[in-house]
Amino acid sequence: MSIEVKVPVLPESVADATIVTWHKKAGEQVNRDENLVDIETDKVVLEVPAPDSGVLSEIRENTGATVTANQVIAVLEPGAAAAKSNAKPSAGNGGTAPAKTEEAGEPALSPAVRKLVAQHDLDPAQIEGSGRNGRIVKEDVLKAIETGPDKTAKAEPKESPAPEKAVQPVAPREISGERAEQRVPMTRLRARVAERLLQAQANAAILTTFNEVDMQPVMDLRAKYRDGFERKHGVKLGFMSFFVKAVVEALKRFPEVNASIDGNDIVYHGYYDVGVAVSSPRGLVVPILRNAEHMGMADIEKKIIEFGNSAKNGTLALDDMTGGTFTISNGGIFGSLLSTPILNPPQSGILGMHKIEQRAVVVNGNIIARPMMYLALSYDHRIIDGREAVQFLVAIKELLEDPARILLEV
């Protein structure tokens, strides 16, 4: 009996999705839980695993098609050991034999998991899977990496890493030919980002206030404890954890910056879910550090690295980017000296970090060079007055220039 492959249930706010990449062709054999196709929503790329082993007999919706929840997009003929399929292979397959299945004894892996395993030279057979039917998920691999390579490393390294997860095509950086042009469709994520940015500027009274912070105290503290921090926690001590902790403390002092407007009401949030803007091959995404007030600096650094890897691999979950009460954006990693960040609705504030640059400043009456960073706070003037916005940014400046304040909450 044929098995239908359906689009998974989409979140309430997502009406439809777009098929990005088919990883199998009609006529090829697939294993249960092996990733068949990637579909893109407004925020994330979802993997659709095979519901059973067998042969992919029919692909009903091709790449680029718009699909809805529970729509049938393919059909499988059951049987893990099936040698042939009654259906004709697609033109692109050329009638060749079915693609190779996973090696004997090695579990089926998604592209993102396969890439992590290859990068760290791990043996999937030694990793305990926590997914459906024991399938290895990303968290299992990350846990194996943290516990050390002794038990999970392969005897010999692989000759080549697994291919990267395919993403929506974008325009090339160079287009050959005289006065040549190329038209490509906007990805769903890019279209959604454009829509939200226009919405923010149209529906909020956005103002930006600026300040600068002397980063020398934070840099000295990092230099003093960097090695010990990494030995104990297995992660480097970066700048972002200092900024997240400073932001949380400042939000506690100025609750209106952690609030949002809902109709004619102002909603004051008693928790601090801080979004961290991350660049990905598909565009800008903002995963959320939930309950950041309860996170240690090591927890923050680990979570940010995890988010960065997931954004690069296209494996961020929808829940990772839903919600948030405040956002931090670091344009400094790209060399930005000063910018005006745009609000992430319905949030009322966003902090922009920038490049650290040696500048001449006056300290105790003397002109000396110090590592300075410009800070920018964009805020919704409908609920945040200029006084509170300026004082909020000054509080962050003071906390960073005297990091002991972050620990003492003074």
Question: Describe it for me?
Answer:
This protein is of the alpha+beta class. The chain folds into three domains: 1-98, OB fold (Dihydrolipoamide Acetyltransferase, E2P) (Beta Barrel); 102-168, Dihydrolipoamide Transferase; 190-408, Chloramphenicol Acetyltransferase. It has eight helices and 19 strands. It has helices spanning 111-119, 138-147, 188-203, 216-233, 240-253, 297-313, 386-401, 404-408; strands at 3-6, 17-22, 29-30, 35-40, 45-49, 54-59, 66-67, 72-78, 206-214, 259-262, 265-268, 274-276, 278-280, 283-285, 288-289, 326-330, 349-353, 357-363, 366-380. The strands form five sheets. Strands 9, 12, 15, 16, 17, 18 and 19 form a seven-stranded mixed sheet that branches. Strands 1-8-6-3 form a four-stranded antiparallel sheet, with no helix packed on it. A hairpin with a 2-residue loop joins strand 10 (259-262) and strand 11. Helix 5 packs across helix 6 (297-313) and helix 5 (240-253) crosses helix 7 (386-401). The longest helix is centred in the middle third of the chain and has 18 residues, at 216-233. The radius of gyration is 25 Å and the shape is globular. Mean pLDDT is 81; it is low at 81-106 and 154-171.
